[in-house]
Amino acid sequence: MSETNHTTIYEAIGGERTIRRIVEAFYPRVQAHPDLGPLFPEDIMPVMEKQFMFLTQFFGGPSLFSDMYGHPMMRGRHMPFPITPKRANAWLSCMGAALEEIGLDPTLRRVVLERLQGPAYHFVNTEDDTTE
Q1: Is 97 helix (H, G, I), strand (E, B) or coil?
Q2: Which UniProt keywords apply (predicted)?
């Protein structure tokens, strides 16, 4: 990504097609993860679509999420769920594995994961983790 041409992460990773591939590689990992899977509904498709819209917007693409649902307010939307540091780490680990699976360039993988670390840890709302 070059500062001089103001490329967004969305553009640098390949736009809509790549975001879709990330989401499709990510959620099977989340569902299978013992610390994350129980937080998600059995019908994961609506969650996947919201994640696609959010990541598109978050990485500098069209404002799909806001256009459909209003301001993301992601911390508030995650408050009903016990998000622990362990779960934030697991989420980031699943995302890293998904990015690797789809073959995203290692430099772009680092950029994406760095950008997602802030929100992942911002959503932490409890230290209590009875799954440890």
Answers
A1: helix
A2: Heme, Iron, Metal-binding, Transport
For residue range 60-99, what is the model confidence (pLDDT) as tens digits?
A: 999 999 988 888 777 666 667 889 999 999 999 999 999 9
Tally the C-alpha atoms within 13 A of residue 56's C-alpha that lie toward its C-beta: 19
Residue 76, CA atoms < 13 Å, CB-side half-sphere: 4
Owner of token pair 């508030």: 76
Give pTM, 2 decimals: 0.87
Q: Are the C-beta atoms of 44 and 55 separated by less than 8 Å? A: no
Distance, CA of 45 to CA of 55 (rounded, Å): 15
Domain coordinates in residue numbering, the chain? 9-122
Amino acid in position 111 = V
